[in-house]
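Supplementary Methods S3. Input chains for the assembly prediction are listed below.
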Amino acid sequence: MSTEWRELYDREYPRLLRALVACGGDLDAAEDAAQEAFVRAHREGPEWSTRVARPGAWLLVVATRELFRDRRTRRRTERWPDLDRPAPGSAYDAAIDRADLTTALRQLAPRQRAVVVARFYYGLSYNEIASAFAMTSGTVGATLHQALAKLRQIHVAGKLARGAMQ
Amino acid sequence: MSNDIPNEDRVLGEALARSIEAQSPPQTPFARSRIAMRLERPQRRFPFAAMLGAAAAIVLALALGSWLLELRADRDRSIATAPTASPDAATAVPSPVPSPSATAPAGASTPAPVTSLRVFFPRAGLPPVSAIVMGAGPQASAEDRIRSRLEALNPARTPAVPPGAFNPFPLSDPAQLRVASVVVSGDTASVDFALFDGGWRWSGDEPQVRGLIQELVYTATEEPGIRRVTITENGGKPTSIGGVAVASPLSREDVFGYAHPGDTRPYSGSGAPMPPLSVALSTTYSVDQFAPALARFVIRVDGGIAARQFPDFGVDLAPNDDTARPEYGKYVLQLKIAGARDTTTPGTTLVDRSPLRSILTSEGRGQLGTTAFVYWLGLDDQRPWRATVLFDPARIVIDIGGAPSAVSDDGNTVVYAPAPGATVATSFDIGGVVRAFEAGYVWRVRDGSGATIANGHGTANIGTAAVWGAYDAKVTLPAGTIGRVTLEVFQVSAKDGSEVSKVTVPLTAR
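Predicted structure tokens for the full assembly:
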């Protein structure tokens, strides 16, 4: 049993953590949410892995819910800043460009962030997203459309602003 | 995934996916993950055989307890035909090995589930310490979890009660007292005890009374989201424990023994400005090592720093949302050090020694986008904290707690050594921290009659500053001094010359 959980953790945890950091920008909250998602999966009982078609998607849905719930709580009770972490190990410009995109992502509404990440980073279909996030397939399409339009707007504005400063 | 999305959107989405994939957040390995701890917990904390034994013992004790309650209720109602109890049954306590002759009463054939519960036990003159005991559970609701923790207190004995702590719960007759109801409203739990034959009005001495109140308040407020507890008796009637009224809501800070809770105003240390990543940090921690009930967190600063310099740092004590992060306890002390990097892997260290629950190490962001390193110290309560700076090598020292009687009411004088009640030789060292005008402090030793037999003064390593300065001195008593003496450490008011911020430490000279 422990081996199965270790394999699942090793396979899914890195991707889940990256998705959550991109969604929230707060390393600690992302870590918390990712860890909690695995614990909840374990609480579901031994048949969880056979019952759930895509464990990775299940973990993403539970963890994003936990992440945004946790962030709402934090805003009420804490005054500490988010712990942003720069993307290391890459050329400065490329890193800035990528960081801009993830920064832009964080300016979307929480639901939009989760749907964009589910679609493009996890590669889930409309139907899978609709089922996981309790939406209709049409709402998934509309949410994605609005999210990408806003993402493009924010990203382009950021690039223009950076170009103006150089 | 593609016909339903315009090409330009897909290109943007895929670029976003690549940017997410390019991130390298520090990752907790499986061995240190929560799920691994969850998988290993039963084996790690409680050897299987011992757990079985304890479980059986608790089931037996619970069965006996409920049977005795029924017996008492029957007797009180003057209804006859109660079974005959063994004379020893009333004082039965869980033992590691259940008696072979013990049998559960009829109707108790299904063993009640047991779980590990965090409770607190008092220490003489010090704040309580947490411990893990076995009790009924797991429970689904906050009310039931609080009840389980409180009901697990009465039977607890050594080794469940940690060294240095004691259990003042009225032990003579468990049936005298049980939790009748628990109601949670907001951050307050109202606990009603069913008391028989006087219940709380037992004749404990002052340390026992104070210890029992601490034990109940800390244990009841261990439930995440709960910060206060109201204790009543027999259907919500106000009650008192050893003459101390407890019907109004009590928090841990009301009962922990310090004159004031730790300061929640953010402190910003103005050290030397550092270029980003110019200094390397390494940390150590200790609990109860330098002084009783003292948690000490030391950050050593290496590289890019001149003598008597330290980097900018900030300290901020704030309530923790323990419903979201129970491993950090009730309060988190955040330290932020600008322009620094830590050589250790970011992550959480579970300490679990009161008052220090866990330590988070993480990279953060300082002002104007500079890099900073952030530490969170998860704490049991809001006890007083102090920041000190030591040199050669440069260290930022965060002290949390200490013996309450060794912390002056305003927190500006603290004595770490000798500990209250210690036995000292004719010559002994004193040490602690002061926050004093020009770092000045005075010490004095009085004999049993109150006469001064030795005195002196000194300066701490830092004065007239927001951080505390460390001091130490050697005290020499007159030859032949034996018996009770008191050490006083205080400051002299710059305004009127009066003695202020005084700490009195009782000692025995030999």
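Chain A touches chain B through 63 residues (CB under 8 Å). The radius of gyration of chain A is 17 Å.
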